[in-house]
């Protein structure tokens, strides 16, 4: 649990207990401890960054090292998404700041958890977000961007084999009149492993977590 402790800091106990409940299939118990923490004054942003994100990273590590099954990983992810949905009345009540974002995973990309967290945190900061989810056809993403003309497009990819589809999408955006100058932010494991990759594919920036994404968004939309 060293990685979880390092990422969670003062929230280590809550994150550990939450993750343990999920790994032991006690979904309702996990949900109850999160709702109790919020009722006691823990900010939803802290829950997202220091409990959800930290526990998901650790669960992913356990899966990659064959300490848990893919079924367990899927259960934990689905359970966390359910808890996130329970928090939406708080998240979507934030006063809006006038900015809009479209967030999507390119065609073929099934790992959506990280991007969903990013979209939710942007909502908490007052953005109107249009979250399109996993495995969205490029043409559908493009049409949504044309219709909305957001300030920012956030795109995610976790598997190297999906990079080509993401690159094709960015090229489509850059070659489409009226939206060619829209700011594009990317995230995901390939960009973590190759920090300069985002420049090569035509994006305006890369962030490795949701809080950094918000700071980056403020920077690039004002440039």
TrEMBL record:
Any GO molecular function: methionine synthase activity
One term under GO cellular component: cytosol
GO BP annotation list: homocysteine metabolic process; tetrahydrofolate metabolic process
UniProt entry tagged with the keyword Metal-binding: yes
Lineage: Archaea, Methanobacteriati, Methanobacteriota, Methanomada group, Methanobacteria
Name of the molecule in the record: Cobalamin B12-binding domain protein
Source organism, top-level taxon: Archaea
Keyword Metal-binding: yes
Domain B12-binding: 98-223
Assigned keywords, A-Z: Cobalt, Metal-binding
